[in-house]
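[recover] target loaded
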C-alpha cells in the first residue's frame, strides 16, 4: 500500500503497537487528544458562541462560528457533524475536522454536539442532528442566516448522519438543505461494500474498527438495513440535495461513497465524487501536507458554489 510520504511518517510516529485501551472513556480521551494535535488554531475574524438546543430526553450544544464580515447580513450556513464512529468526538474535534470553512467560504458554521453511542444508540445521535437542523431553521433570523442557503455535511460517522439527516428531513416535511458534503462517510452499516473486504490490513481505520463502531451505534444487525442507518440502502433517493462526496483510496468505507454517488445519479440527483489517492480514511486532516490544503479548498469551493446556486 502506497501512502503519501508525510502521511506515512506521521502514522509511523503514532503507531506504538499497543492495543487500544479497554475502557471506552479512555479510548475517547486518546482519540480526541490525537485529533486535537491536528488543530491549526483559531480562525481569523470570527465570532464563536455555543447554544443549547433542547432535544428529547435532554439538551445538546451547538457551536456557531460566524464571520464578522456578515454583521447585519443574512449569511449562508453549513451544519457540520463531526466524526468518531458515532461514539467519539466533540465540538473541539469538530473544529479540527471542519477546518477554517467559516473564514474560507465564507459562511456561518454550526457544529452539532450530538449525544454519543453506545450510551445513546440509534436513533438518538441522528435525532439530535435533526433537532439541531430544525433549530437552525427556526433561529435563522436571530442568527442572521439565510434559511434558503443551509448546507449539511460531515466526516466519517458525521457523513453518515448528514446523509441520513437529508432523508429524515424529507420524511418529516422539513425544508431540505441546499447541499450535502459527505466526507469518508460510512453509508452502509451492513458492511457490504467490497472495500470492507479488500481493505483488511492498512494504517488508520480498519474494517474491524468499522464493525466495532457500527455495533456501538446499532447493536442489532437486523436494524442496520434501515435507510436512516444505512442511507445507501434507501429505496428512494429522489429529490435529495445535490452532493459532493470525498473518499480515500485506502479506506474500508471507500466504496460506500462511490456506491452512493451511483445511487444518487440513478435517482437523478446531481452529485460528484473525488477519490483521494494514497490516503487512508480522512488522512488529509493532518496539516502541512499538500492534500490537507487541496481537500480544504475543495470543501470550500463546493460550498461556495452551492451557496451561489442554492
Amino acid at each position: 500500500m502506497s501512502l503519501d510520504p508525510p502521511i506515512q511518517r506521521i502514522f509511523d510516529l503514532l503507531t506504538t503497537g499497543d492495543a487500544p485501551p479497554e475502557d471506552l472513556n479512555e479510548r475517547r480521551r486518546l482519540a480526541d487528544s490525537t485529533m486535537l494535535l491536528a488543530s491549526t488554531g483559531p480562525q481569523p475574524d470570527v465570532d464563536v458562541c455555543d447554544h443549547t438546543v433542547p432535544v428529547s430526553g435532554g439538551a445538546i450544544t451547538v457551536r456557531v462560528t460566524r464571520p464578522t464580515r456578515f454583521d447585519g447580513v443574512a449569511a449562508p450556513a453549513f451544519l457540520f457533524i463531526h466524526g468518531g464512529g458515532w461514539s467519539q468526538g466533540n465540538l473541539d474535534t469538530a473544529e479540527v475536522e471542519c477546518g477554517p470553512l467559516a473564514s474560507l467560504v465564507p459562511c456561518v458554521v454550526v457544529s452539532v454536539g450530538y449525544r454519543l453511542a453506545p450510551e445513546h444508540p440509534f436513533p438518538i445521535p441522528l435525532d439530535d442532528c435533526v433537532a439541531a437542523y430544525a433549530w437552525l431553521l427556526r433561529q435563522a433570523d436571530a442568527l442572521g442566516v439565510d434559511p434558503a442557503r443551509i448546507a449539511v455535511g460531515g466526516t466519517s460517522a458525521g457523513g453518515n448522519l448528514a446523509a441520513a439527516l437529508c432523508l429524515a428531513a424529507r420524511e418529516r416535511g422539513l425544508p431540505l438543505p441546499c447541499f450535502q458534503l459527505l466526507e469518508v462517510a460510512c453509508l452502509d452499516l451492513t458492511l457490504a461494500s467490497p472495500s470492507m473486504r479488500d481493505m483488511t490490513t492498512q494504517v488508520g481505520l480498519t474494517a474491524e474498527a468499522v464493525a466495532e463502531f457500527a455495533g456501538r451505534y446499532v447493536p442489532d444487525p437486523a436494524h442496520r438495513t434501515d435507510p436512516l442507518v444505512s442511507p445507501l440502502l434507501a429505496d428512494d433517493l429522489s429529490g435529495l440535495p445535490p452532493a459532493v462526496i470525498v473518499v480515500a483510496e485506502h479506506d474500508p468505507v471507500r466504496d460506500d461513497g462511490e456506491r452512493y454517488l451511483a445511487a444518487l445519479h440513478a435517482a437523478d440527483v446531481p452529485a460528484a465524487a473525488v477519490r483521494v489517492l494514497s490516503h487512508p480514511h480522512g488522512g488529509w486532516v493532518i496539516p502541512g501536507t499538500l492534500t490537507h490544503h487541496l481537500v480544504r479548498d475543495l470543501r470550500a469551493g463546493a460550498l461556495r458554489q452551492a451557496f451561489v446556486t442554492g
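[recover] notes: The domain at 5-14+42-309 is CATH 3.40.50.1820 (Rossmann fold).
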